[in-house]
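Let's practice the habit of predicting before peeking. Look at the sequence and jot down your guess about where helices and strands might fall. Then scroll down.
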Amino acid sequence: MDNATRGWINGFIGVVIFAGSLPATRIAVLQLDPLFLTAARASIAAVLGGMLLLALRQPRPTRASLGPLLVVALGVVVGFPLLTALALQHVSSAHSIVFLGLLPLSTALFGVLRGGERMRRGFWLFSVLGSAVVVGYALSTGVAASLQGDLLMLAAVLVCGLGYAEGARLSRTLGGWQVISWALVLSLPLMLPLVALRWPSSLAAVDAPAWFGLAYVAVFSMLVGFMFWYRGLAQGGIAVVGQLQLLQPFFGLVLAALLLHETVSWAMLVVTMCAVTCVAGARRFAR
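Done guessing? Here is the structure:
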């Protein structure tokens, strides 16, 4: 099996794992404070990642790597989990998953800004059209009730794209799983005090599904998924394997319907398909 095939397999596994993040977060925030959830998931994953780094005797990152690692930490360890947890207090996971159709575009945008790549005119045409589809959907579904949640999801997509692009660049020299592990370790001094400050007043009042949701996003979404994802990007190429992000909204919608019994309307499916089509077109004209 060549590296390209391994990259597709690892990237696909990572996307499937990430697809469960929003439904699991939705379950958890029904009974857990969003700040506690964000800090707890990062702290648990940081401890596990730190143990891996120690067990496998990984060298410390260089000074030049610290800045990018902080960007990764702010994007995918703190920013995306916190913003989505806050958003899911206002919107359903099925609604929020529609915005994930913009993740490949967000990643590409920061790839241009950080990597200095030149994109063709067709790329930007599809990019603007995809954004217009998502914004139009948000406006048509009751902006007064979900504006805050929609804005939080858009912000989450932006910071996640930045974290993906920066992490993908850094994984070429530092290694895929090492990037997320070191980013988690760097965030631990901030996350642990926040866990203590936002600790639930009564653990008995938190039911098992909320704890299972926390466990999933801590172990799988925050650590294991990134191990497969960054490894896939390194093996198969960022541009090629990054296409697999387009499948994430579909997996997420199915999980939201199966696990949370949420209604997935035809409008959600149509908008998701339009967003995926636009992002795919933008990728086609990227070079």
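How did you do? The chain has one domain: 3-284.
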